[in-house]
Amino acid sequence: MANKKRKNKDIDRYAEASRWIRERAASMTLSEVADLTRDEIGDYLPEHRGEGKKVEDGEDRAKYAFWNIVLGDLYLSGEVAGKSWRDAIGCYRSVDPISSPRVANMYMEGQGVPQDTAYADRIFVDIIKHEKDSEVLDCAEFRLQCFKMLEERHGAGKPEEQSVAAPVDMPDDIKWTLRAAENGNGYCCYLMGEYYREGKGVPRDKQQAKIWYAKAMENGETEAFDALNGLREEDDASAREDDVPDPLPDWFVALDKTLPMESEQTRELRRRAEDGDAAAECALANFYSTGNAEIVKNTDSAIVWWQYAAEHGSFKACIQLAQEYGSEGKEEQVSRYFGAAAKVLRNAAVGGDSQKMFDLGQVYALAGNQEEAAVWFRRAADCNHSAAQLWLAKYYEEGLSLAANPDKALRWYRASAEQGNVEAQRNLARCLLQQGREETRREACTWLLRAMSAGSLEAFYDGLKAPAEGDVPWLPYLCRAFRQD
After folding, report:
1. pLDDT digits (tens, 9 = 90+) for 105-142
2. Is pTM, for the whole model, over 0.70?
3. Please, what is the end-to-end C-alpha distance for the chain in angstroms?
4. Less Cβ around it within 10 Å: N or C end of the chain?
5. Could you tell me which of 406, 450, 457 has the C-alpha nearest to residue 432?
């Protein structure tokens, strides 16, 4: 449960690993630290480590985890060459693939990844609820930090600051220091923090000490920074014993119920997107665009993931962005992303890939360049691409950038229909019925039946709505006759 205690020797192992890293890196530059970190992590990987290196051992595992956190922080901060949030998140995920507070912070702040506070909250909640021992990130201090952060945002609110009024029996010298501190003297604020921390002339009170240290920092007293950090480190140490409350408060239980839970498939999709997989980035963006039971709808996040996918060569992401910006009337962005999609597809299309020819034609059609679209539909149709044949037939039938030509429209509808394209079969039947001849009516009925056998209800309704011959709805009867044959 949330208040499950950790053995002291386990916590000591983490602390020892942390000290070991600090000692190794104390006299190095950040670049040297990064290089050392990469080397140390490599030593623990199965494909690189020797017989004496076993990452399963407690001490080695703790060192491996801390090195990953160190390297992730360096990647994220950009303080060394090769800044990369993707590398950073990979390091953090390797420590604890499901529950990493640093990953949650990245989503909370929109640092590299799109901002998603609901997903970040879910990670924090899962860390607090997690019962299984984790080598590093499920320690009590991490869980308490997560709990306090959630309490600030979703709980009953921050506790009110305690009064800083002087006790009646306060010594005169401290009273004068307090008066100066209340008037904004930074050094006296720092002294008051020291007095409360040590219990000198006033009751020992860490909360009051923190308040005065914070006021000292606000008034330019830099020494208060280290003092305040020292108190926080003491709080982190005590967290190992305090842990989060059990039972968990009502606000936490309610939050847990309202946050979406991601399946393993969605988590894997997210990890692939974080690694830079364009298809995964585009798929994740589509989920954010519509929202579902696992991901809260967030158009801004969708746009960021589409942008990443576009940067990694996804023409589908480019099209989505162009359409999204088109709905906002941002014509410059629309032109940019349609152009980017065409650029991605052109090389493959010129190389003879019929699917890419068709995709390129669609890009031009969506961009409003029907002449260029017709060129690429024709090239793909000549390569026997069924969907391209259908589109080319429509262009000939409607006279869209091409001279209207019913015969050519019929030819390309038939070519696509023969490959099993149901929409082409229906359109071909419609064109044949319009000719009004007995032989074309029979052929139309044949194509509608083929479409119906493929499961097209639309084809069935097309037959019912077909024009009657005289007062007799001839097509339903003809369909029955063909069924009997």
Report:
1. 899 989 889 999 999 999 888 888 875 544 444 456 66
2. no
3. 71
4. C
5. 406
